[in-house]
Amino acid sequence: MGMRVENGLVNQRHIDDYRENGVVVVKNALSGEWVDFLRGALDDLMENPTKMGLEYAHKEDSTRFFGDQYMWLTRPDFRRIAFESPIGEIAGQVMGSESVTLFFDQVLVKEPGAVEPTPWHHDLPYWMVRGEQICTVWIALDPIGLENGGMKYVKGSHKSEKLYSPTFFGDNANDSTFDETRYEPLPDVDATYADDDFLTFQLEPGDAAIHHARTFHGAPGNKSAATRRRGYMLRVLGDNVVYAPAPGQAKVAVRPDLPDGAPMGGEYFPEIWQRAGA
Ligand SMILES: O=C(O)CCC(=O)C(=O)O
């Protein structure tokens, strides 16, 4: 693993596709060594969740649907992934930013038989930030397709500035403070869009799907009998992203010591990548 080098994984097609569709896949974003390292960290985390850890499964016939967030704050293994893996650089190249700031890390694991879907939503209304260069790098740690809960995206949905209410995940009221909301609910996405408006991908371990914070996305449950669906997410900020706390956003582990409207940064939101020469 070692030191990060400027990698050649991102080309102009990735940048153009991300801009046009609001999502793009970078194949083999992480090496097999990183995938093994992440899987090991995740195994341990599932036994020892942080205080942000949650069990989302709520249906009687479901299996485990586990999530956790902000792991890097307390765990050296997740800190290492955030700071030393190529993920930050890949995000910076795809977004076209001068630098990348770590917002937070997250995992979501749907074990075979975890039937709960991930409801359609977009991320920005959940988050205490405002800006254009905000994205998620979603890393597959298993072979993942629609059958075992692969994500679906609405092509180009990031282009509208309009924001919609956050949606509960797994019916679990603990995952947020959505007591007030400023936005109307997201329309019925499945009914509103045509088949060719949706993008889905077959991901292999180490592949990264990068989506813009306004892109609509959701996922079915894991209907596979044997294939786990482990996803690791790094949520990152490019240039000109500011702190924008508001009612109705998701619960967070830490807040920046900043006034509303100040550029995001500080010890809990560190820079993880800078463009060479920037
Ligand atoms: O992994 C999932 O099912 C949902 C992930 C998600 O919503 C996200 O990465 O923003």
Could you list the spans in which at least 5 consecutive residues all have pLDDT below 50?
A: 1-5
Small-molecule binders: 2-oxoglutaric acid
| Distinct helical segment count | 5
Distance between the termini: 25 Å
The CATH fourth-level homologous superfamily: q2cbj1_9rhob like domain
Q: Provide the CATH top-level class.
A: Mainly Beta
CATH fold-level topology = Jelly Rolls
As a percent range, the share of strand residues is: 15-25%
Oligomeric state of shown chains:
single chain
Percent of residues in helices comes to: 10-25%
Characterization of the model:
The protein has helices at 12-21, 32-47, 76-84, 87-95, 189-192, and strands at 23-26, 54-55, 65-69, 99-110, 118-121, 129-130, 134-140, 152-154, 198-200, 208-212, 217-219, 229-237, 242-243, 271-274. Residues 1-5 have low confidence and may be disordered. The protein has 5 helices and 14 strands. The longest helix is centred in the first third of the chain and has 16 residues, at 32-47. Strands 1, 2, 3, 4, 7, 10, 12 and 14 form an 8-stranded antiparallel sheet that branches. Strands 5-11-8-9 form a 4-stranded antiparallel sheet, with no helix packed on it. It is of the alpha+beta class and 278 residues long. It has one domain (13-254): q2cbj1_9rhob like domain (Jelly Rolls), CATH 2.60.120. It binds 2-oxoglutaric acid.
